[in-house]
Amino acid sequence: MPIPHIDFRANTQRVSPHLIAATQKSTRTALAKRAQAIEIVGEDQWQALRQAGHDIKLHALTHLDEYLPMVEARVTQAGGVVHWARDDVEARRIVLEIAAQHRVKRIVKSKSMATEEIELNRALQDAGIAVFETDLGEYIVQLAGQRPSHPTAPALHLTKEDIAALFRAKLGVDAPPDPQTLCEIARGKLREEFLSADMGISGGNFLIAETGTLVIVTNEGNGRMCTALPPVHVAIVGIEKVIPDWEGLAVMLKLLARSGTGQKITAYTNLITPGGEEGPREFHLVLLDNGRSRMLQDEIARETLACIRCGACANICPVYNHVGGFAYGAIFLGPIGAIVAPQLLGVKVAGDLPFASSLCGACGDVCPVKIPIPNILLHLRHRVVEGDQFASATVSPILGVGARVGTTALGTPWLYRLGARMMRLFQASFRRGDWLPTLPPPLDRWTMARPFPAFRSDFRAWWRRR
Ligand code: SF4
Fold first, then answer.
1. Which domain holds residue 349?
2. Which mutation among 57, 61, 313, 343 tests ligand 1's pocket best, with the greatest number of atoms within 8 A of CB?
3. What are phi and psi of 34, to 5 degrees?
4. 3-class DSSP state of 208
5. Which of 151, 262, 348, 433 is deepest in the core (most CB within 10 A)?
6. Cα dihedral sign for 155, 160, 164, 166?
7. Can you tell me the mean pLDDT for 65-75?
């Protein structure tokens, strides 16, 4: 059965009303669970935890010169191998070399933003290595040929009916739209991959400096299958993930579970210190910089690196909730993506993102480690307008003209009314219900990716009626 908003062959990720509705439903559920979890803790204690989380991360970020060598020493003493990757090219090269040494043909991979950031899958596939995503959501979007649409729930934009149709089309199985059956189908397929993989790749949520322990937090057992079953485990971890000690980890785990999924503790918290009796024969830790040390030089924006990837800012963001994750055009989604992407990828690639915010402040209020996202958004806007020191960028002249026209229309009541009337006339032949699914050029630049909401009666008419 065809699915209206997914074209598996064309890898289309067009945002549709269906996708928006699925996104809103999932994010609302996540926020409701989060609110319940915080209520149990109590507001005062939650605020104290947030402050502690913020302080721990900021302390670690400003003492990386102390803690990263500690991680290296502890991991090496325990028999692991530590690699330093200055950028994505070096990180890919390191992983490819390890794979070549072990004649790796099949890799199982757990969910990891760092590997997406360095586009590792493509490099491995180009080298003739099959890579299987094992997080259920990642597995689904990989099958669909899509990108994740949410920082923690990659397939959040798909309903169970979508996933059933995908499994029927791609796996050739009889898949009813029943979550348990769908999970069982995926589990059966993935078991075969875990048992035949030559290498497991993971990211990491935290690195504990005092013992060199890698911490991976998941709600599925698949993560630990990747790190324990194959003979070689490679973890690719951003340098900002280091925290000083286990006391700090206790705070972080409380914040992450409650803020991300409304749980007291996440289902699987894997603590990996190399050299144990169980697990892989070889452990490699790739410490990834890729622009992070440059980000640390900016005293305002450096707090971006405190993110623990809980996804709460995306759940609460009214912009994310209406445009979906694909609209961010990058691997870092939602409000945190709007501040990470321009700093890591450069403003030439992602300079638009800090402007795509209403600055309502909800993301800053919800963040469990108190990252002042709205302030950083504003700061990055200044950096973009002034010309970023790392990538020259200017605001498009068309945007400038558009902003001036908008300012004039909004400040001139008769012009605003005339404009609103003209827009309603203009849209009549394109309108389908509450949406404008297609528009003529140049407006089709928008509708190629997502429908435009139809103009309804203007505010003044609405006000008079009420
Ligand atoms: S910025 Fe804060 S709320 Fe957003 S994902 Fe990171 S930790 Fe969570």
1. 310-386
2. 313
3. -60, -45
4. strand
5. 151
6. negative
7. 97
Give me the sign of the Cα torsion angle 39, 45, 51, 53.
negative
Q: Is the pLDDT of residue 53 over 50?
A: yes
342 and 461, same domain (yes or no): no
Together in a domain, 30 and 88? yes
Whether 340 and 371 map to the same domain: the answer is yes
Residue 309 Cβ < 6 Å to ligand 1: yes
> What distance lies between CA 137 and its chain's CA centroid?
12
The pTM of the full predicted model, rounded to 2 decimals, is 0.84
Token pair recorded at residue 320: 């994310």
The count of structural domains within the chain is 3
Is residue 106 located within the same domain as residue 175? yes
Residue 5 lies inside a defined structural domain of this protein: no
Q: How far is the CA of 248 from the centre of ligand 1 (A)?
A: 17
For residue 248, CA distances in Å to 43, 50, 238, 244 come to: 20, 12, 18, 7
Residues 263 and 346 in one domain: no
Least confident of 162-176, 199-213, 392-406: 392-406
Q: What angle do CA 224, 228, 233 make, to 5 degrees?
A: 105
